[in-house]
Amino acid sequence: MTFSGLGRPFKICHMTWTTMRITGVSKPRWRKAATAPGCRFLCVTPADPPLTGERYRVSRLPFSRVTAQDLNFFQQELPGRVVTDEEDLKSHNIDWLRTVRGNSKVLLRPQNTHEVSEILRYCNERNLAVTPQGGNTGLVGGSVPVFDEILISTALMDQVISFDDVSGALVCQAGCVLETLNQYLEGQGYTMPLDLGAKGSCHIGGNLATNAGGLRLLRYGSLRGTVLGLEAVLPDGSILNCLNSLRKDNTGYDLKQLFIGSEGTLGVITSVSILCPRKPSAVNVALLGCESFDRVLQVFTLCRDHLGEILSAFEFFDASCMKLVQKHLHLNNPLPANAFYVLIETSGSSTQHDEEKLNDFLVSAMDAGLTASGTVATDQSKIKSIWALRERITEALAHDGYVYKYDLSMPVDKLYALVEETRARLGSTAKTVVGYGHLGDGNLHLNVTAESHTDTVLAALEPFVYEWTAQHRGSISAEHGLGFKKKDHIYYSKSREAVQLMQKIKYMLDPKGIMNPYKTIPTADQ
Ligand code: FAD
Ligand code: 2HG
Ligand code: ZN
């Protein structure tokens, strides 16, 4: 039949392909909650989660409590930018997933590095614990306080400092929203080297603090490679300026790497320097249906052979994910029902060249019987609506119930076996068990939904999922970090010696432990 998804019609033998229907789905943006003014995020459940300290039976460490005198100091330093109203604080005390809840009484909104430095110097002297917060889209409970830690928001630190349109080096404050940065760069023919479903809310500082992976990692690599420099304020208020824009700099230890992925436990990242690639002029997206995970793997191998340097994303999701985005977000599946879906993106500089390569790949995939149906998009709105099917799975899951979330990396051929075993193990205890993720990076997102949080479901999942992952030499956190929820499981992926060294580094930089306590690494005496 004739296939018209690409610019020039071409012949595809044997297979029935459906053409894309445009649904005009926009990128996810978190709705304001009707009941919580100031909340920027999706709030689907009216009931607040229990306090973290109670649900997880954690004891508060002996930090000082905020006094009227402390508030006076903060008001003097940040006039009009000290939030103490309980209703305004609510959305900052609860995580995006609505699974953890702290009880902070104050949120500070500094505008520059000097102010962050003054806040931390004071808090350190007073032994007041703090939690840095960017867009509060983190998925491991790292971005909200566990008890009454002071919140330091980067929301007002949202200025671009410089952009070099020859080298592509962008220098900006930590509170710039990822999507806003991308729009800024696109106007100059560049793009951000990372992209994720939370782009409309997450901050670049939060992205560095979590070493976020996302949808472009296959192409542009980890943030650890694209970040050129950063500035951070240490717990004692001193400012560490590593804000280079150099591609090459082998002078001593690479200190910025300590802060990338440190989840707010070593200091507050205040500015970032990042190397941005040119915006690709030709982008194509294909959505293919596959009847088994084995076929998905074969498509991946074939895809790398055919598309090589222009391949920019290879994502997969199962039929249960598709059902969730259809049910909860009313997205349209342009294909007949399949067991698995593969989203392939190519990005390059020549439309004709890229389309030819994609055509060749698709014909080979179909000739080999690897895919039963598919659709291709080259124009922006179709590309967006195909991407929405993959990007908005997290949002659809949040509508389905309480979400148990696992973010694992392991050899790709093992990825889906864990989903199947988990499904069989949980039976009807779970509402839905889904598997999806960045297959090109060996990263599985295993998610389980249930009516509510119960110890029974949790006991069926943990330590089973972590043991399974460790047995296959995987990582129990591929890209979301450890935060509050996963920190005690670090030993499944790191040796005792490695954790001890982390604890020493933490103690050296933050002897009082005021920076984001109860998060990321177990405390030294555990
Ligand atoms: P927050 O959630 O506010 O904070 C995250 C952690 O970083 C916390 O520990 C916080 O204390 C610390 N922190 C924040 N800012 C600073 C700072 N300036 N200095 C020091 N510490 C700081 N993650 C991925 O890796 N890949 C994905 O594809 C992906 N997709 C997502 C899709 C959705 C729909 C959602 C809701 C989340 C997704 N995430 C993903 C998780 C999350 O968006 C990322 O971890 C993101 O990088 C967090 O940024 P943020 O600004 O929201 O940080
Ligand atoms: C994604 O890849 C994010 O969409 C979120 O990392 C994954 O919700 C998840 O489990
Ligand atoms: Zn992911």
TrEMBL record:
Domain FAD-binding PCMH-type: 100-279
Enzyme class: oxidoreductase
Listed EC numbers: 1.1.99.39
GO BP terms, alphabetized: malate metabolic process
MF (Gene Ontology): (R)-2-hydroxyglutarate dehydrogenase activity; FAD binding; metal ion binding
UniProt xrefs under InterPro entries: FAD-bd_oxidored_4_C (IPR004113), FAD-bd_PCMH (IPR016166), FAD-bd_PCMH-like_sf (IPR036318), FAD-bd_PCMH_sub1 (IPR016167), FAD-bd_PCMH_sub2 (IPR016169), FAD-linked_Oxase-like_C (IPR016164), FAD-oxidored/transferase_4 (IPR051264), Oxid_FAD_bind_N (IPR006094)
Cofactor(s) the protein requires to work: FAD
Subcellular location: Mitochondrion
Keywords for the protein's UniProt record, in alphabetical order: FAD, Flavoprotein, Metal-binding, Mitochondrion, Oxidoreductase, Transit peptide, Zinc
Chief subcellular location: mitochondrion
Catalytic reaction annotation: (R)-malate + A = oxaloacetate + AH2
One of the record's GO cellular component terms: mitochondrion
Pfam families: FAD-oxidase_C, FAD_binding_4
Function in brief: Catalyzes the oxidation of D-2-hydroxyglutarate (D-2-HG) to alpha-ketoglutarate. Also catalyzes the oxidation of other D-2-hydroxyacids, such as D-malate (D-MAL) and D-lactate (D-LAC). Exhibits high activities towards D-2-HG and D-MAL but a very weak activity towards D-LAC.
Family: Belongs to the FAD-binding oxidoreductase/transferase type 4 family.
PANTHER family (alphabetical): D-2-HYDROXYGLUTARATE DEHYDROGENASE, MITOCHONDRIAL
Name this polypeptide is given: D-2-hydroxyglutarate dehydrogenase, mitochondrial
Originating species: Leptobrachium leishanense (Leishan spiny toad)
Lineage of the organism: Eukaryota, Metazoa, Chordata, Craniata, Vertebrata
Name of the encoding gene: D2HGDH
